Amino acid sequence: MAQLITVDDPADPRLHDYTNLTDVALRRRREPAEGLFIAEGEKVIRRAGNAGYGMRSMMLTPKWVDTMADLIDELTCPVYVVSPELAESVTGYHVHRGALASMARNPLPTPAELLESAGPHGAPRRVALFEDMVDHANLGAAFRNAAALGVDAVLLTPRCADPLYRRSVKVSMGTVFAVPYARLESWPHDADTLRAHGFELAALCLSEDSIDLHELAARRPEKLALMLGTEGDGLSPAALAAADVHVRIPMEAGVDSLNVAAASAVAFYATRP
């Protein structure tokens, strides 16, 4: 059973992992460099543990100690009990859920390793490729859609946001832990890696030569990589040039496009095997 440690000083160095959680630029540098990420809320913490991420520590307000008692019984890491006021002072915001955990990151596979990995249904056959998706909420929502709609894996371009950043994890409801992912190193040159593994690259865009999403789905590609770009700008010209086919989602009522997370849900659903 983990030892419960009451902490009453916001400057206590043992709470270092939880400091300044609202400073996005700082946390984006710190967390990968220190090999950690923050899980917030009971459900997300449990999902992170069930997905195989090790826990470094947990920080709870008193009312959450009983709720998390079964998990605490299994832990060997420290569990810090703090007042709601101290939690807010340390993190920089009101911690509504009252439960935070510092989790250890796992090493990421290379893109080739990911595409060759064997999951419950064999090697990946349908993957999502997110280009420069820098908004953490959109990325978390897109991961949630991927998990819910059976996408086998996700590839991220170098400039994509961190899916394990607190906001992404929170929006995804912890489903970022359910979808294996890797980060590309040289995009769009890495498109060749996908082709070498038999994938057809389909770019979601508004180009004049795009085909209807239903037409793509009717083809039933053996292996399909659905490419989505950042909110607003969409996919880059280089990404569009690297794609094998351009695909549009039919729109009505004068609407030209959807939010990228919504578009990912439509595309993932329409192309389910």
List the helices and strands and how they pair.
Blueprint: E1 4-6, H1 24-34, E2 36-40, H2 42-50, E3 55-60, H3 69-74, E4 79-81, H4 84-91, E5 99-104, H5 111-116, E6 126-130, H6 136-148, E7 153-156, H7 166-171, E8 181-183, H8 191-196, E9 200-204, E10 211-212, H9 213-219, E11 224-228, H10 237-242, E12 245-248, H11 260-270
Question: In the residues, how many domains can be counted?
Answer: 2
Instruction: Write down how many β-strands occur, each being a DSSP E stretch of 2 or more residues.
Output: 12
What's the CATH first level of the largest domain? Alpha Beta
Content-based structural category: alpha/beta
GO biological process, one term: methylation
Organism: Streptomyces griseoluteus
Protein name: RNA methyltransferase
Keywords: Methyltransferase, Transferase
Précis, in short:
This is RNA methyltransferase. This protein has 273 residues and is of the alpha/beta class.
Fold and architecture overview:
- The protein is of the alpha/beta class and 273 residues long.
- It folds into 2 domains: 4-104, Ribosomal protein L30/S12 (60s Ribosomal Protein L30, Chain: A); 111-271, Alpha/beta knot (3-Layer(aba) Sandwich), CATH 3.40.1280.
- It is 33% helix and 19% strand.
- It has 11 helices and 12 strands.
- The chain has helices at residues 24-34, 42-50, 69-74, 84-91, 111-116, 136-148, 166-171, 191-196, 213-219, 237-242, 260-270, and strands at residues 4-6, 36-40, 55-60, 79-81, 99-104, 126-130, 153-156, 181-183, 200-204, 211-212, 224-228, 245-248.
- The strands form 2 sheets. The protein has a 7-stranded parallel beta sheet. A 5-stranded mixed beta sheet has the order 1-4-3-5-2.
- Helix 3 links the parallel strand 3 and strand 4 (79-81).
